[in-house]
């Protein structure tokens, strides 16, 4: 068996991304999509929870472990140099992919949750005091609520929440009214994982900046569907998870503007985040290493690099158009079903349809869909305040990835027909 180095596997990006995305061809890159579940072909519609991985990503992981595995930043031997080059190369490619000014603005973390916790800890603690205010939105995932809530409790600060309308769109007039001279930061998601709403984060960043307030974007669902240019968005922090963008689990990114990162104290402490240590005094390393204490997830970064190359090669605009078409088709087909109610009907949406079926608990819907090989998520989607806003305990969520096609929607609709026949 020959093993390819991750450098060779990961970065075969064509000079120019194609204008049209060929989902049928892309499906062949994802072996899991050819498997059977309960004897039925898998219809994977749980992409908001995690995406499947293309061969290009898994080959990069295997290639890394079989040819280049070593610890980074500390060895003088060849393998350590290779691993370091791959790890720092991944950082540079991610920086380029999201439009960061330089690789030092990219911090590797476990995922979105850790990225937000890092900001709460290292930016929040020194900058938020008693009586100050933090603005989040009613559309947030728990991971962009609880860390801010804890910070506010610790500091005696106040959490203010941007409300939404019945379509699941944030009320921007209300947002403007929430600002005061005590507002310290705004934290909102790019795309809601529960409703699919795309938030106007560039506009929201401009409003915050007009008052000298920084803005963090939870991009866990934004980057996979929309791509991102952090400079065009004008955000100060952007957090995302590799596993939701076709990369491995356990790797994610916090983008932070250099100006802010350079003033933030460390998050965790230990190896790699220091320049020198004596018992009297430690001199810290510079960002991004300052925020990456301990041995990092090198293989994860290599896999993320391969996923970035994959998305870049396919063309994020082409992927977006394809996904919009599938979402529109699904919205039409589900909208035609009797007794089915869609939650989240924002004019700008990506990736997600949340719904309930009259007379059937969402968990029962999910269980019956599973017997048909259709994987969806049911529950509150780690966004309980959204469920409360709509007065429901849970929804069924079908969420789409680049490899989903209209036939997947047809399979979902057929399986929902089976749910109906069971509960008639
Ligand atoms: N924010 C949003 C909008 C999400 O969808 C998720 C994952 N469901 C997260 C944050 C948390 O991401 P992770 O679990 O990868 O840290």
Put the structure in a nutshell.
It is built from 16 helices and 17 strands.
Identify the notable features of this structure and list them briefly:
globular; Aspartate Aminotransferase, domain 1; Aspartate Aminotransferase, domain 2; binds 4'-deoxy-4'-aminopyridoxal-5'-phosphate; alpha/beta; 16 helices; 4-stranded antiparallel β-sheet; 424 residues
Task: Give the SSE map.
Elements: H1 6-10, H2 23-27, E1 36-37, E2 40-41, E3 43-44, H3 55-67, H4 78-98, E4 106-109, H5 112-127, E5 133-137, H6 146-155, E6 158-162, H7 172-178, E7 183-189, H8 201-210, E8 215-218, H9 222-226, H10 230-233, E9 237-241, E10 252-256, H11 258-261, E11 274-277, E12 282-284, H12 298-314, H13 316-335, E13 340-343, E14 352-357, H14 362-371, E15 374-375, E16 377-379, H15 384-390, E17 395-399, H16 406-422
Parallel strand pairs: 3-15, 5-6, 5-7, 7-8, 8-9
Antiparallel strand pairs: 1-2, 4-10, 9-10, 11-12, 13-14, 14-17, 16-17
The structure holds 4'-deoxy-4'-aminopyridoxal-5'-phosphate.
Overview of this protein structure:
Helix 3 packs antiparallel against helix 12, helix 4 packs across helix 12 and helix 14 crosses helix 16. 40% of the residues lie in helices and 16% in strands. It is built from 16 helices and 17 strands. It has a seven-stranded mixed sheet with strand order 4-10-9-8-7-5-6, sandwiched between helices. It folds into two domains: 115 residues, Aspartate Aminotransferase, domain 1 (Alpha-Beta Complex); 235 residues, Aspartate Aminotransferase, domain 2 (3-Layer(aba) Sandwich), CATH 3.40.640. The longest helix is centred in the N-terminal third of the chain and has 21 residues. By secondary structure, it is an alpha/beta fold. Bound molecules: 4'-deoxy-4'-aminopyridoxal-5'-phosphate.
